[in-house]
Amino acid sequence: MELEELPQPAFDGLVKTESLTADGDNPNEMPQDRFELLCDRIQQRGWVGNSIITDTNGIIADGQHRWEAAQEIGLEEVPVKQYDIDDTERRLIRQELNKLKGSHDESQDAFEYDKILSGGLGDPLEELTETRDEDLEKMLDEVSEAAESNEIGDGAKLTPERPDNPSKPPDVQRGDIDPESEWNESAETEYENDQKLPRYAEVKVKFKDEDAMNRFADLLGQTVTKKTNVLHFPKSEEWSMVNNRVDQSGISSNE
């Protein structure tokens, strides 16, 4: 089947923004902060969304918020597709287009957020996630864990960023404990950072027994329990995945 064989709109093109109307019954509400962001994005990027869908009288079936944003920023014309439909069909189309959408997989969202952040578009992304009440740092933490177990991208293994010498421990001393001997003797060590994104070095440490775990905790000066999943070194109350991101050149975003 060709596209031309499908039902076509009675009109497809630009119309005066002021010529369209809304029926006041749209159940799809948009918070003010999200609406302001929509206005901003149209001004920055142009009309990247779909055409507004209306009947032949210009009453909107889909795209009311884009139309309202166009009015807000003073856009004189908007792209419109008008269909020869009655009021009942128009309302049904509104329901269909509002609800016949895919659901978002949060882990895939977070994985894409990670790529966007690495590409230098952190500010607009954070504006978007704030309007959706999404905890960006929590999502990125979760995607790190998912990437480690290869649960992202249908099991695709991601390319790790490796340190210069992952087999050598930090050059530090704590009392009578030699970190290098602890590194070699107390646990099986394995560098793992299954992320394409250059953020930070991540090391997984597997302890052979509880005594080894306690000695490792003494090395770091932090509390380690059997339920501990992640430790940040050096420890910082202000540490976050976003603030401590490292780019390709090795420069931390908080420097």
Structure write-up:
This protein is of the alpha+beta class and about 260 residues long. The chain has 2 domains: about 5-100, Alpha-Beta Complex (Conserved hypothetical protein from pyrococcus furiosus pfu- 392566-001, ParB domain), CATH 3.90.1530; about 105-220, no CATH class. It contains 8 helices and 6 strands. The protein is elongated.
- Strands, total number: 6
Rounded mean pLDDT score:
76
Q: Can you write the helix and strand succession as a string? A: EHEEHEHHHHHEEH
| Tally of individual domains | 2
Helix content: 25-40%
- Proportion of residues in β-strands: 5-15%
What attributes characterize this protein structure?
2 domains; two-stranded antiparallel ribbon; 255 residues; alpha+beta; 6 strands
Short description:
By secondary structure, this protein is of the alpha+beta class. It has helices spanning 32-45, 64-73, 87-99, 106-118, 122-131, 136-148, 179-185, 210-220; strands at 11-16, 52-55, 60-62, 77-83, 187-191, 203-207. The protein has two domains: 3-99, Conserved hypothetical protein from pyrococcus furiosus pfu- 392566-001, ParB domain, CATH 3.90.1530.10; 106-220, no CATH class.
